[in-house]
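Handout, section B. The chain below has 370 residues.
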Amino acid sequence: MTRTPPISTPPSNYGDLVARKRVIVACGTGGVGKTTMAAATAVAAARAGRRAVVVTIDPAKRLADALGIDALGNTPTVIDGAWTGTLGAMMLDSKATFDDVVTRHATSKEQVEHIFSNRFYVNVSTELPGTQDYMAVEKLNELHCSGDWDLVVVDTPPTRDALAFFEAPKLLTRLLNNTIYKLLISPRPGVRQAVNRAASGVVRRLARVVGAEVVDDAIEFFQTFQGMEEGFKKRADETLSLLASDDTAFVLVASPRSDTIAEALYFLNRLADADLSVLAVVANRMLAALSASGDEAAQLQARLGAGPLAGAAQALVDHVHASAGDEDRISQIMAHVPDATLTKVPLLSSDVHDISALGDIAELLVQDPL
């Protein structure tokens, strides 16, 4: 059963979130239009006079094309448009962000050079699962604390684990507080010799699996990291406080397709387990609801019989039933978050391909719900 944590300040509509929140985190499974909804949210904020920036992790050039720019980088690009505020957009580069974090917390230029040249660090900063999640929250904190933006919109990485993004700072803190880690970086020779003796068997077995050079590089990296722990832990704690604060809103982007409903409910369960409330649900690609009921459509089809409009009548019947199915599936989600605001974005005839189409979606997001 899905838990439903209480919402302290329920929004009146999606426009309310756009107007007063400092951080909006768009979460959901891949393929539901999360990146587009995140970008449209930032556009809506810029139209409302706010300084808004969207951080996307989608490497596809489609979003850059829609925004009318050649490419997105790891720092915000300001985009001109018909808004009174400011719109910025950037695409997360995990490696570049990790390098920036190391440079910021390092105690000397030599320490930075040693870490950057370490092969273990190169692998961790580019290949290790979870690095992207941590760098996303790190970039969020950086933008939020810069003072340059009123609203930061984050398009979270496409993972089934809804809490991977939120858990990333906790995982780093646990690593830095781990006894083995503290012993590895200990400058006292006696302690290090004791660790070497105690861990020698484990290290030998690990070296046979991953290679002795990898183990040596990892130990060297942790020892080189010494002195930077407090800066990383302080930043992680700040980010956790921000994500749990009333300044932040979690938005679930969902699709009415039957194969995505279970995933959406799983997301809600995981967020509720962490006492995080979803303040808004964006139901994307909804079929338009018609005034005709299923019975009325069937009666019309019966009257037309096999005449020239029979095909149109059948299409009407099919559409009414499909639209009702969309509504039923989205209602399953809303039953678990009754205090959240629901915004429906209709199925469009084409993908978002320019800033005008993105603006249309922004308008749909902030209009009063029916």
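Note. DSSP finds 16 helices and eight strands in the chain. Compare this with the example in section A.
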